[in-house]
Amino acid sequence: MVDIELENVVVSAHLLEEVNLKEISQAIPDSKYDPDEFPGVSMLLDYPRVAVIILTSGKVVCTGAKSLEEAKDAIGILIKRLKEHGFKVNESPKINVQNVVASANLGKEIDFEKVKKNVGEKVEYIPEEFPGLIYKHPNTTVLLFKSGKIVCTGGISEKEVKESIEKVVMEIS
User: Fold this and answer.
1) The domain containing residue 117 runs over which residues?
2) Which runs of consecutive H residues, i.e. helices, occur in the chain?
């Protein structure tokens, strides 16, 4: 088949009950908080290399992970940092996958006309708006580019995005 690579796993978790974003940003080095720009505290972690955002609701969003395990590790690191600075946190939060993005490369150009003919109404192509074919599945969206690159987004598991890409590759081959 085709090599599929996870690009981004976005997760969320509810870590805090009482949230004072200004207090968090002042206590934790390398965090940023500018309510005029964005209504949350943001941080970049070195390892795993991800971004985390803390919102006033106490919800945390982690983006940039290359796997669910990396995302879970990042949430664990954030919990540890918050605890070290005296914040009361939920130490065993339910981690919810919000989005998984994967990519693949066919290694050859995609003939858009042939694909449109073979799969019909399943694809949308409006070159004035977007330079690729948009192939909508029930839970994912697969973007096909003439170069042979494929991006799948909207899934909530690695399995789901991989199956979507594999199905599309089979249909367009």
Assistant:
1) 106-172
2) 21-27, 68-84, 112-119, 158-172
User: Is residue 140 a contact partner of residue 160, using CB atoms and an 8 Å limit?
Assistant: yes
- For residue 120, is it within any domain? yes
Per-residue tens of pLDDT for the chain, all 173 residues:
799 999 999 999 999 988 999 999 999 989 999 999 999 999 999 999 999 999 999 999 999 999 999 999 999 999 999 999 999 999 999 999 999 999 999 999 999 988 988 888 889 988 899 999 999 988 999 999 999 999 999 999 999 999 999 999 998 87
Instruction: Give CA–CA dist 119/171, Å, rounded.
Output: 7
Q: Taking Cα atoms as reference points, which of 121, 117, 118, 124 lies closest to residue 144? A: 124
* ω into 48 cis (within 30 of 0): yes
- The reply to whether 3 falls in a domain is no
For residue 4, tell me if it sits in a domain. no
Supply the CATH number for residue 155's domain.
3.30.310.10
Domain count, the chain: 2
Q: Do 29 and 89 sit in the same domain of this protein? A: yes
